[in-house]
Amino acid sequence: MPSPRQASGLSRRWLMCAGQLLIANASKPVMIDVNERTHEDRGMVKKIRDNQILGQKGIALIETTVLDMGFTWHPTNGPLEAGIDGWIELRDQGTGEVANCWLPVQSKARTTLAPENDTSVSFTCGLSDMEYWMTGNAPVILIVSKPDQKEAWWVSVKDYFRGRDIRKDRKITFDRVKNRFSPDAADELKALGSRVGAGAYFTPVRRQEALVSNLLRVKSWKEIVFKAPTVHRRPSDLRAALKTHVEWPEKEWLLHEGSLFSFHDLSAPPWCHECDADLMTTFSTSEWAFSDSADHQWLFVRLLNQCLRDIAGRAGMSYSDEDECFYFRPTKDLTEKVVQYHSQKRSADRVVFKAHPSKLDPTKIAYYRHDGFAGRFKRYGDAWFLEISPTYRFTSDGRQPSPYGEDNLAGIKRLEGDGAVAGRVIMYADLLRERPSLFHKRYSFLTFGELEHVVMDVSINDEAWRRIREDSSTQDEELAEVDDEQGKLFDR
Q1: Strand order in the sheet with 259-262
Q2: Which residues contact 3 (CB under 8 A, 6 or more apart)?
Q3: Rounded CA gap, 76 and 79, in Å?
Q4: 406: phi > 0 → left, psi -120 to 50 → alpha, else beta; which?
C-alpha cells in the first residue's frame, strides 16, 4: 500500500473522510488510514528543540535571580511576544511595598558567547530587535546568559546605545563583574527604575552618611559700611573718575540713590575727591545682612558681589556679564593653565584653561574652554552662604565668546558626572578661602569658611547610580580624571 505522500504523487484528486484518505486514480480508488504513518512521515511530528529548552533555562535563571533580589518576575505569556520576554516589578525589600514600577526584559540564552575572555563577554544584537527596543518610553533590560554555567549579564539597552548608530554598531561588551546579573544588581535596577518611573520611591539604606553641599559658608565680612553723598550716578562714571587718582581703583563699593556705599573709609583718598566726605556716616553691615527689608538685603548682596570679584580676581578669574559667571583668564600665549589646590585629603591640580583642536582639522583650534562658576549669595536662617555652581565658558580666541558656546556647554554638562562637579566645587571653595602668603596678606573684607555638610541617617548607593549614569553616556576621559578624594559627594 502506498504511503500518503506516495499516494499524493499519483493524483491530485483525493477526499478526507473519517480519518481516512481516499485517493482516486485511473484504475481504482485507494483507501489509506492516515493514523498509520510510516517512518518517512515522522518528521511531521511536533518537536521541542534544544534551543527552546535553552531559552526557557535562561528565563528560569532570570526569574530565580529576580526573586532573590526581592522583586517579582512576570513572564510574557502567549505567542504575541514581539521582543520582551517578561517584566521585573520593583519592590521595596524593606516594606514589601510595590511602586507600580516595571522594567521590561529581553532574554538571550546561549551555550557560548564570542568573543569571550576572562574579563568580558560580547553579544551582537539583531537590527530588528534593536529597532524595537530603542522605541517607546520604557527602558529595556537585555540579559545575556549561559544557563548551564548559571551566569548572566545585563545592560540597559537605551542607555548603552544612546548616541550611537545602531545600524553600524550593535555590539555589547559586558564586563564580567560590573554587568553580572545577580542579586547584587538590585540597587542598580532600583536606581534605573527611580530615574524612569514617575513616583517610584524605595526606602534608602539605613546608614549614616555626611552629605557635602555646594554651599560655602560666609565666615566674616567688613563690619562697617561707609556712606557719603556723591554727584556720580553711574558706576562707569565713578570708576573713570577714580582712575584719575589711582591706576587700579578698589572694587568694594556701590552707588544707590545719590550715595556712595563702601567698605573703604570715604574720608581718605581717592574716595574723598569723589564724594562729600563731610557728610559721611557709618552703620553696621549686619543691619543690611539680617534686615527684614528685601531692599537692604539686596544692597548687602551687591556689596558682597563686589568683594567676590576682587577675591576671584586674585585667583586669576574674571567675570563675564554675558555668561553671568566667573571664569579663568587665558594665559598670554594661550597655553594650558593649571591651578593647584587642596582637596579633601591631599593636594591636587586641574587644567582650568585649555585649547581644543578641531576634529575635522587638528591643526586648527575649535575653541578654548575656561573653567568657571556662577556664584549666588543666599541666606539660610541666621547664616549667609555662597552657592557655587560650576560651569564653563567657551571662547574662539581666549577672549571672544565662541559662536557654539551654548552647544558646547550643553554637551559637557550632559557628559559630566557628579564626581567631576564635586571636585570642581571643592577646588573653588579652596581658592576662594585664599590662604595668606609671603607676597600678599589675606583679604579682609570678606572671608569664607567650609563647605556646608549635613549628616544623614540614610544612605544612597552611589555606585549604583554612577553605573546607570555612566551607561547612559560615553564619558569624556578628561572629565572622568578626578581623584577619588575630590570625586566623592559623600564622605563616609
Answers
A1: 253-256, 259-262, 224-229, 281-284
A2: 32, 38, 40, 41
A3: 9
A4: alpha
The 10s digit of each residue's pLDDT in 170-214 is 999 999 999 999 999 998 898 888 776 544 555 565 666 777 889
d(CA 431, CA 317): 11
Strand order in the sheet with 151-156: 72-75, 86-91, 98-109, 141-146, 151-156
Give tens-digit pLDDT for 254-306: 999 999 999 999 999 999 999 999 999 999 999 999 999 999 999 999 999 99
Which residue shows C-alpha cell 574723598? Answer: 272
Q: How many CB atoms lie within 10 A of CB 61?
A: 22
Domains with residue ranges and CATH for the chain = 4-44 (no CATH), 50-203 (3.40.1350.10), 216-223+287-480 (no CATH)
Q: What are phi and psi of 123, to 5 degrees?
A: -150, 135
Query: Which residue carries 570708576 as its cell?
Result: 239
pTM of the model: 0.58
Residue 63: DSSP 8-state: H
Nearest-angstrom CA–CA distance, 453 and 302: 26
Q: What would you measure as the largest C-alpha separation in the chain, in angstroms?
A: 138
Residue 390: what are its φ and ψ, rounded to 5°? -60, 145
Q: Are strands 281-284 and 253-256 parallel, antiparallel or unpaired?
A: unpaired
